[in-house]
Amino acid sequence: MHDLKISRPGLWFPTIWIYLVPFSIESHFWENPIFWIGLVFVTFPLNYLVYGLNDYNDYKADLVNNRKGNYLFGAKSTQKQLASIPLKTIGVILPFIIGFTILSGYKMLLLLLFMIAINIIYNFKPFRIKERPPFEIGIQIGYVFTAFFSIVLNDLQMLPWQTILYLSLFAFQSHIAGEIMDIEPDIKAGKKTTATLIGRKNTKFLMLAFLCIEVYILLFWFEDYVLSGFLALFSLWLLIDIFILFKDKPYSLTQMNLFGYAMNFSAIASMAWILYSAKLLHAVF
User: Where are any strands of DSSP class E within 6-54?
Assistant: First the structure.
């Protein structure tokens, strides 16, 4: 159960969401067993790689982070538990690397090795991009390779560049939300992030800027009035958060948990929409 907490089931939605983007409901993708194998991979195994290596190098910050220690935001591990993560990660990931390479060839092998390399560069010295703001936001583009993985594995058409840009902004925005919630424990642990450097309110403004660009892309480049409308409402909520409700105050643990459940509910609803509408597969600009 502790290893499941490490993979943070409450934060599986970005990898699942991005994996599903290249599909449309008209393709009857659910009839293909390979689709389900890929879907399994982007849940526990891929997120164990991402968050396991993150936790392995974040002991001090996690120790003072009150939102950790659950299935929503991740485990609070002892140093002994963390010591086994690299070996466990290899055990979890290696069978999928072998299987997917057999199924899809050398391109898949290179893609998976690149995804692993991104996580190593993000977490380990001498790179440790996670503490080199603002590059720790930019490297979140690695999440977009989940879509490329989906395309190669399921033999799908490449996404429009406009969709790739939107997914990149989605990854940046999702990461910034986590940084905002972790400002206090990161400062206590001496961890540098964009949020600890520029402050909570400015980081919220940065997140708002990404959201506004996403709304523009969805509205004018894809004519997706549903998803753009939802993000516009979220942007409005963030404005209320900044100027009226929370301003520069930290969120309570209860509030962060509510936000986490709300994010998952929104992700499930939007997954259904992108599969039904297939809007992100056809840019009009």
Answer: none
